[in-house]
């Protein structure tokens, strides 16, 4: 079962780990030393989209080479949890709701008759047609209760967030407000059976929409959309080229303040995608990724703001040791900044709580913004 939320407070010089590794229930105010640092909002946060095959089933079929990455998810999750425990990093794992099942056998010969479907072109198969009825042993890419239990049992409490029930992109034309609400409600139901409360959402494919639905279903935070400069280039080829150039040069990632949206939820801005050694990203050496991450951390400390690393466990499914070591180099640098009192390391939900309680620097949608921090 899930551990209670535990948020680690940065040390000041002379304090012991026992004094500062404070464990607090959600909503409890920060300590005095933490509050002083949070006012300027120098924060590292990490989010991971836990999808298994749900996030790529539209293009990864039998025989696809990326299946090797998906099959490496379970060892990758163990390696990441070991790293997070050692570095005392409470990450947010945004899980596709269907992964909360240990097994599913259908109902009256149908797959999820209780769930509405997205509108699809005439002749398209049912949304759940490719879902194999089974369990974590017979269909391990579709069911992930064992992963949820491992994450919930980490010695350094991890946040488990939502990623919709079946990885539906909120902005797709066939995804109505009612359908999106049903996806969140189903995920919440399955999480509650395991004693979990989902407070943070990662939108599938980072496509933000239906924000008014989030608070109705208990969510207070979501990860912001892609904001790097190359996403503003016209066309996917130019965007891909810009992304590769940026990563090879280890350009400093964007750092910004969280934003309180008019719907009452908090957008936690993203900064850096920690990419797999796959496709063009295989050309980016581990050292460049480390340099880029450290530059993002230093920018957060220097200017104030959130440095947000995000990825997927399947991105670590091959070349696991190299990638975890590279991520570890960044996180241990962040841990040193935390331990000298320059940085807080918090999960998305905790950042949102501090914004909503007015205890952390942030922007308000529609208000006069601070100077550009990117």
Commentary on this structure:
It is a single chain. With about 375 residues, the chain is an alpha/beta fold. The protein has one domain (about 15-365): Alpha-Beta Barrel (TIM Barrel), CATH 3.20.20.370. The protein is about 30% helix and about 10% strand. The protein contains eleven helices and 13 strands. The chain has helices at about 15-20, 30-40, 65-70, 75-85, 145-150, 175-190, 210-215, 235-250, 285-305, 320-340, 350-355, and strands at about 40-50, 90-95, 105, 135, 160, 200, 220-225, 260, 265-270, 270-275, 305-310, 345, 365. Strands 1, 2, 5, 10, 11 and 12 form a six-stranded parallel β-sheet that branches. A five-stranded mixed β-sheet has the order 6-7-9-8-13. Helix 4 packs parallel to helix 10 (about 320-340). The longest helix is centred in the last third of the chain and has 20 residues, at about 320-340. The radius of gyration is 20 Å and the shape is globular. The two termini are about 40 Å apart. The model is unreliable at about 1-30 (pLDDT under 50).
Descriptors for this entry?
single chain; 374 residues; alpha/beta; TIM Barrel; five-stranded mixed β-sheet
Summarize the structure.
Helices cover 32% and strands 12% of the residues. By secondary structure, the chain is an alpha/beta fold. Helix 9 (286-303) runs parallel beside helix 10 (320-339).
Under CATH, the homologous superfamily reads Glycoside hydrolase/deacetylase
* Biggest β-sheet description: 6 strands, parallel
CATH class: Alpha Beta
Q: State the order of secondary-structure elements, H for helix, E for strand.
A: HHEHHEEEHEHEHEHEEEHEHEHE
Per the CATH scheme, the topology name is TIM Barrel
Report Rg.
20 Å
Number of domains: 1
Strand content: 5-15%
CATH architecture: Alpha-Beta Barrel
| Uncertain parts | 1-29
Number of strands: 13
Number of helices: 11
Distance between the termini: 39 Å
Derived from helix and strand composition plus strand pairing, the structural class reads alpha/beta
Spatial shape: globular
Q: Could you estimate the helical fraction of the residues in percent?
A: 25-40%
Integer average pLDDT:
88
């Amino acid at each position: 079962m899930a551990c209670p939320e535990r948020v680690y407070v940065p040390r000041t010089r002379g304090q012991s780990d026992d004094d500062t590794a404070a464990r607090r229930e959600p909503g409890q105010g920060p300590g005095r030393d933490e509050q002083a640092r949070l006012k300027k909002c120098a924060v590292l946060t990490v989010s991971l989209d836990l999808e298994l095959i749900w996030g790529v089933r539209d293009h990864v079929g039998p025989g696809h080479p990326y299946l090797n990455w998906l099959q490496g998810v379970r060892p990758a999750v163990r390696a990441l949890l070991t790293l997070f425990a050692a570095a005392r990093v409470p990450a947010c794992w945004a899980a596709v709701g269907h992964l909360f099942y240990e097994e599913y056998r259908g109902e009256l010969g149908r797959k999820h008759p209780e769930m509405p479907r997205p509108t699809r072109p005439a002749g398209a198969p049912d949304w759940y047609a490719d879902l194999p009825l089974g369990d974590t042993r017979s269909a391990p890419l579709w069911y992930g209760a064992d992963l949820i239990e491992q994450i919930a049992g980490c010695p350094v409490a991890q946040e488990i967030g939502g990623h919709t029930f079946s990885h539906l992109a909120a902005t797709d034309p066939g995804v109505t407000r009612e359908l999106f609400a049903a996806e969140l409600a189903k995920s919440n139901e399955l999480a509650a059976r395991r004693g979990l409360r989902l407070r943070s959402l990662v939108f599938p494919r980072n496509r933000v929409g239906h924000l008014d639905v989030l608070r109705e279903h208990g969510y207070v935070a979501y990860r912001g959309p892609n904001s790097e400069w190359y996403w503003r280039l016209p066309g996917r080829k130019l965007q891909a080229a810009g992304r590769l150039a940026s990563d090879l040069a280890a350009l400093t990632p964007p750092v910004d303040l969280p934003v309180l949206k008019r719907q009452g939820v908090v957008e936690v801005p993203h900064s850096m995608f920690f990419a797999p050694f796959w496709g063009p990203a295989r050309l980016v050496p581990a050292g460049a990724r480390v340099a880029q991450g450290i530059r993002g951390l230093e920018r957060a400390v220097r200017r104030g703001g959130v440095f947000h690393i995000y990825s997927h466990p399947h991105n670590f499914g091959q070349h696991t040791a190299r990638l975890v070591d590279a991520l570890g180099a960044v996180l241990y640098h962040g841990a040193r900044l935390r331990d000298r009192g320059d940085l807080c390391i918090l999960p998305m939900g905790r950042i949102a709580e501090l914004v909503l309680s007015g205890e952390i620097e942030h922007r308000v949608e529609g208000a006069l913004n601070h100077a550009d921090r990117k």
